[in-house]
Amino acid sequence: MTAQHPSLKATLGGATILAVPFLWFFDWQTWAWICVGIFYALIIAGWFSQALEVYRANKATPQSPFKSDFVTSRAVPSASEELGEDLEDFGEEIWQGNKRIRFAYRNAVSDGTDREVSVRKVMSAGSGHDDDIYFQGYCHLRNEPRTFRLDRVKGRKVVDTATGEIGTLRQVLGIKRRLSR
């Protein structure tokens, strides 16, 4: 999402609403005009600073809402390479298999990215609430095995890349029991 540039017209309009009564009160004297000129210079400098921040923020992010950071041109590793011994078990295994899914994910620092993952395992670590459900698999964006928390999947919705089906992780993977209690 791109940020909007601040409106110079609205900013100067607000400054004028303040400047005209000031000038009128002091009988349009020269020193009052100088004060208003300094006031306008500060207002325009503040507006320029905001516009520059917005420009830099927009330059750093993709302009189209449909752009994605999916990596599609790299070779897909074999299943044995995908799931190395790097992944830990987090508790009771709920599902095991191989299903490629796509979803919007936010990590611990709230950076949101679209991910495409070949899921190998779904596990419950304790109470079974959404923040205790993890799934492991090969992340095609990062090109390495990763573990994901279900509660960090945006809207808890995933897409099956083979069929285009959209649903919860449980629905897409065909898990019969509920993931959260």
From TrEMBL:
Residues 97-156 form the WYL domain. Keywords: Membrane, Transmembrane, Transmembrane helix. The chain crosses the membrane at residues 7-25, 31-49. It comes from the Bacteria. Coiled coil: none annotated. It holds the Pfam family WYL. The keyword Transmembrane helix applies. Signal peptide: none annotated. This is WYL domain-containing protein. It comes from Stutzerimonas frequens.
